[in-house]
Amino acid sequence: MTDTIDAPVDPRRSDADTERLTIIHNPAAGRAPSEHELRDAVGDAATLVATTEDHPGVGQAADAVRNGADVVVACGGDGTVRAVLESVVGSRAALAVLPFGTGNLLASNLGLPDGFEALEHIRRGVRRRIDTVEVNGESFAVMAGSGFDAEMMIDAPSALKQRMGTPAYVVSALRHLRDDRVSTTVEVDGAPWFHGPTAMVLVGNHGTISGGVEVFPDADPWDGRLDVMVVSAAGVRDWVRLAWRLLRGRGLSGAPAVRTSGASVVVTTSTPRRWELDGDERPPTDRLEFVIDPDSLEVVVGDA
To answer: DSSP 3-state helix, strand, coil percentages of the chain (rounded to 5)?
Structure first.
């Protein structure tokens, strides 16, 4: 192996032929390969472990780390990646992704192609250390959302996601454009920052969400800070104005949204709202506490 670099912006390479790989694969993912196809693609050296409905990957990844895996590969969609990440954060193992879901949030932000094309990057062993985020006792890498964002992701029909991919979320979003706003307070680094009605609060470590929409264009996953967006859109006209600015890479001036950044964020709402982290849905809550965990995860990336 080559030496680990000091600066997180410089990649590190390692010898994939000598590393121990464990692949945690989800047979139920949207475009999941069969175990036979997966074995043919990765060869005999890797250990394959399947997830189940009751055990989505957290325990399997913890076992892999405990047993000395150098690289733990999450093969599936966003839910599988987030479950595996939970046990790899803070360990000596690196996280790699074979994206076979519909959104593939982390993979797209790391510059990885879909499906087996990502194997070439895993074999090259190009790595970076990134920050992760802890929210209410769980870890994520890309983005979490309360309100509209969560409703859109959670309510997208599974069959439509498998058939259409990202457009399924558009269908779901249209159902929630007129949802009531909720009184919300946001504290950043221990100080009050926002209070008022909101449709959505996003907290991100990377900048891009499903469909390649760049929500935080200057997000940096190794700067030790979280990016925060509060959206107060009320009705279709406000949502169209916001979407137009985001899709064209414009600033938020004139849009029903405000942004800031910090190392810790607390979001409280007057009534419990559904929320999601890296596309993984969670039950309603009226309080979310976010804390950045700097340089806590080594990941396999795309272009070095």
So the answer is: 30, 35, 35
Q: 16-132 falls under which CATH superfamily?
A: Probable inorganic polyphosphate/atp-NAD kinase; domain 1 (3.40.50.10330)
Which of the listed CATH numbers 1.10.287.130, 2.60.200.40, 3.30.70.1280, 3.100.10.20 matches domain 138-294? 2.60.200.40
Report the amino acid identity of residue 261: S
- For the stretch 116-159, pLDDT in tens is 999 999 988 789 999 999 999 999 999 999 988 777 666 554 54
Query: CA-to-CA distance for 127 and 299, rounded, in angstroms?
Result: 5
How far, in Å, CA of 260 to CA of 203, rounded? 10
CB neighbours of residue 56 within 10 Å: 21
pTM: 0.85
Cβ burial, residue 67 (10 Å; 0-12/13-18/19+) = exposed
Long-range contact set of residues 157-163: C-beta below 8 Å, sequence gap at least 24: 161/30, 161/102, 162/30, 162/31, 162/102
**In this predicted model, what pLDDT tens digit does every residue of 225-266 receive, in sequence order?**
999 999 887 767 776 666 666 655 555 555 678 999 999 999
What is the domain partition of the chain in residue ranges? 16-132, 138-294
- Cα 261 to chain centroid, rounded: 18
Question: Taking the CB of residue 294, how many other CB atoms lie within 10 A of it?
Answer: 14
User: Kind of pairing, strands 226-231 and 257-262?
Assistant: antiparallel
